[in-house]
Design goal:
Blueprint (H helix, E strand, L loop, with lengths): L8 E5 L11 H13 L4 E5 L1 H8 L6 E4 L15 H10 L3 E5 L11 H12 L2 E5 L3 H9 L4 E3 L17 H10 L4 E4 L5 H9 L4 E4 L1 H4 L1 H12 L2
Parallel strand pairs: 1-2, 1-8, 2-3, 3-4, 4-5, 5-6, 6-7, 7-8
Helix pairs in contact: 1-2, 2-3, 3-4
């Protein structure tokens, strides 16, 4: 029995670069708790350790991922079932996976991965995609929600910059599952636009929690 719903409205991605002082379970959990206290409907968290720390602090839905760089594989967002299981055990309510049309580790089919997450872990699945073809395939494979997360981050879409509002509009039109806009949201007005286009939720990361990237951007302009 899956006892969770896809959060709607604002979802905050609480992550930090591995070499940042912010990349600490205690700090990530504080970010997540702050986001939820201020009205976020859910949070998106990377790695079992961070998910476990956040679970102790918040009761709001956690979208869990585990970024894994596997030899010879371009897919890195929760690429294998064992990664999904570790995230689920740590306390995630929803498991986000790379659902692009690229080859998966060990030749595993996306549908098999989604079916196992549903049946063996009892968790919902968020499919991170880059194109409308991948979005349609993910929905057919059983994903509970589909997100624009990887638009602009794959060889097929690298000439484009997120947010993928055109892709979002296509997904809203063609899919029957909730659609989430993630990637490149740089302000409240952009988030509102995504919701107006029909997104059930908007994931915001760097613009809220990306201190390292934001400070670097300021320094590159100010130069002092």
């Amino acid at each position: 029995m899956i006892n969770c719903q896809i959060p709607t409205g604002l979802i905050v991605s609480c992550q930090a670069p591995a070499d940042s002082p912010l990349h600490d379970p205690i700090v990530i959990a504080a970010m997540a708790r702050t986001a939820v206290n201020r009205g976020a409907a859910g949070v998106r968290i990377d790695s079992p350790a961070h998910v476990a720390a956040v679970r102790k602090q918040v009761s709001a839905p956690i979208i869990g991922i585990w970024k894994q760089q596997l030899p010879g594989c371009e897919i890195y967002i929760t690429p294998r079932f064992e990664d999904a299981r570790a995230i689920a055990i740590s306390g995630a309510d929803i498991i986000a996976v790379d659902a692009t049309l690229r080859n998966r580790p060990a030749g595993e089919e996306l549908k098999t991965l989604i079916d196992r997450i549903h049946s063996e872990l009892g968790k919902l699945v968020m499919a991170d995609v880059d194109t409308i073809e991948a979005a349609i395939a993910a929905a057919r494979a059983g994903a509970d929600t589909v997100a624009t997360t990887l638009f602009g981050y794959t060889p097929q879409t690298q000439s484009f910059s997120p947010p993928g509002f055109d892709l979002l509009a296509q997904m809203v039109e063609k899919l029957k599952v909730p659609v989430i806009c993630e990637g490149g949201i740089a302000g409240p007005e952009m988030a509102k636009k995504a919701l107006n286009l029909g997104a059930a939720a908007v994931v915001v990361g760097t613009d809220i929690t990306g201190i390292d990237i934001k400070v670097t951007a300021y320094k590159s302009v100010i130069g002092k």
